[in-house]
Amino acid sequence: MEKEICWNITSRCNQKCKYCHRFLNTVDLTYDENINILNNLEKNGVTSITWTGGEALLLNGIDDLLKLSYEKGIKNKIITNGKLLTKKRIDKIYKYLDSITLSIDSINDDINDSLGRGKSHFEEIKTILDYIKEKEYDVKVRINSVVCKNNINNFYDLTNFLNNYNIYSWRIFKFMPLRGTAVINKESFDISLSEYNEVVKYIKSNSKIKNIDTRVQDDMEKKYVLILANGDIVITNKGKDEKVGNALNDSLDLFL
Ligand code: SF4
Questions:
Q1: Which fold has domain 4-246?
Q2: Model's pTM, two decimal places?
Q3: Residues 2-48 pLDDT 10s
Q4: Measured in Å, how far apart are the chain's first and last C-alpha atoms?
Q5: What is the C-alpha separation between 213 and 209, in angstroms, rounded?
Q6: Distance of CA 80 to CAs 48, 94, 102, 121, 128, Å?
Q7: CA-CA-CA-CA torsion sign (232, 236, 238, 239)
Q8: Which residues touch 234 (CB under 8 Å, ≥6 apart)?
Q9: Which helix (H) or strand (E) holds 141?
Q10: CA-CA distance, 95 to 92, in Å (whole number)?
């Protein structure tokens, strides 16, 4: 059976998404400390790691950690906003990855700017998708999108755009004011469940992507074991984050 964890390897990010609910203000561990966590995960039989953040590719030494994890036989999945995923870096790390998840919520530059991703975001994601397609790299490409007030009417364009690529799965998140910036921006970004369901229905009928997956706030409860950048192990329960240990020293047996 798969033993999966989600590792928020850094809380730093190079985008400023207004719906972001990442854990803020956790300090990155050193490279050696992260290796110790990786060894602990291996010892506890973890078979799959989702590397995320913040922006995971910002962390010094992340490429080497991915390689090491791959060599331990762990399945690596990375979630990235793509800003640092140059062609050269794709060439270097794709072989250590089972999948690359790219975050994109719209193909419209103004909407991306209003979401805090910046005007160049669509072009950056398109360059990555075109390159992986051209090289026929053996890595699954997944997409994450957040539906909120700013982009709710623009999924027609995004669905059409993504239909040009061989995308393995598309995970569609409802805006979730879980913590951090998302809580501050709740009023301007929140949508109703029925509005969200309409978008999902449209995508399911019009997308060529076979695996369409949905996420609302309840799905984040007790479903994921998270390791934060400082090593803390966190489980979200009834909207509250509970620290249940630290992956540098504690066994993960109880949580997996
Ligand atoms: S949603 Fe992701 S890319 Fe956007 S600011 Fe948060 S961590 Fe960064």
A1: TIM Barrel (3.20.20)
A2: 0.95
A3: 889 999 999 999 999 999 988 887 899 999 999 999 999 999 999 99
A4: 11
A5: 10
A6: 17, 13, 5, 12, 11
A7: positive
A8: 23, 226, 227, 228, 241, 242, 243, 244
A9: strand 140-147
A10: 7
160-216 confidence digits (pLDDT tens): 999 999 999 999 999 998 888 999 999 999 999 999 999 999 999 999 999 999 999
Where does ligand 1 bind, in terms of residues with CB under 6 Å?
A: 13, 15-17, 20, 22, 53-55, 81, 103
Structure tokens at 207: 């997308």
Q: Which of 10, 18, 20 to mutate to test the pocket of ligand 1 (most atoms within 8 A of CB)?
A: 20
Å from CA of 16 to ligand 1 middle: 6
- Residues 6+ positions from 7 with CB-CB distance below 8 Å: 37, 49, 50, 51, 52, 226, 227
Going from N- to C-terminal start, the domains of the chain cover: 4-246
Report the 10 Å Cβ neighbour count for 14: 13
